[in-house]
Amino acid sequence: MPSRAPSSLLSHAGAGGADARREAALEAAQAALQDAEARFRRLVEQVPTVTYICDYDEAVSIRYISPQIEALTGFPPERWTEDPQFWTSVVHPADRDWVIDEMARRTREEIPVDFEYRIVAEDGTVVHLLDQETIVRGTDGRPRYSQGVLVDVTELRSAQARLRVSEAQMSTIVESAPMPGCRRSPMRFAGRSPASTSRG
Question: How would you classify residue 187: left for phi > 0, otherwise alpha for psi between -120 and 50, otherwise beta?
């Protein structure tokens, strides 16, 4: 009869096969993710809004941001992705602390970002952004990364500010107008009234 391999060798071979299968599955998943990201980039780079992908961490490390960010802020995409904390430096000083805290809190509690804040563009212009994201989860239900959009709402906010100024001006005019019930005296003409000049 042919000799049988020791059970320890068979067990080792089985474990090695399982490791190989896990590694192959991991590589296949990574390839699928890279393919999905490539397709996502091709799609979003044709959309007028800015799109992004972030690692799901409290630092909100930007993995990818679409080219439209340069037209909006003056800073090229590489500035945003090469320095994980660059985005915090361009948040408006009056908004920076609460934005960083709110981003971290929502990450901890797994709540998608959906709020507005201001950033300062390279030329000093203040830009109002609406930031909305979606949390992408793995098969285990845990967040893997987030993807979202940045929408420029500066003109909308400027229009609202102008409207508030106009409303305030109108309120001032109304409040300074004569009280209801007060009537001005009719104008009098010097000499004869217009009716007396008509010919009979």
Answer: beta
**Distance (Å, whole) CA 172 – CA 190:** 36
Instruction: For CA atoms 193, 194, 195, 198, give the dihedral sign.
Output: positive
Measured distance CA(131)–CA(119) in Å, rounded: 11
Residues 161-176: pLDDT tens digits?
677 776 777 777 767 7
How far is the C-alpha of 197 from the C-alpha of 184, rounded, in Å?
25
Q: Tens digits of per-residue pLDDT, 114-147?
A: 999 999 999 999 999 999 999 999 999 999 999 9
Whole-number Cα distances in Å, 55 to 21, 104, 143: 27, 12, 9
In CATH, what is the architecture of 25-159? Answer: 2-Layer Sandwich (3.30)
Helix (H, G, I), strand (E, B) or coil at 82: helix
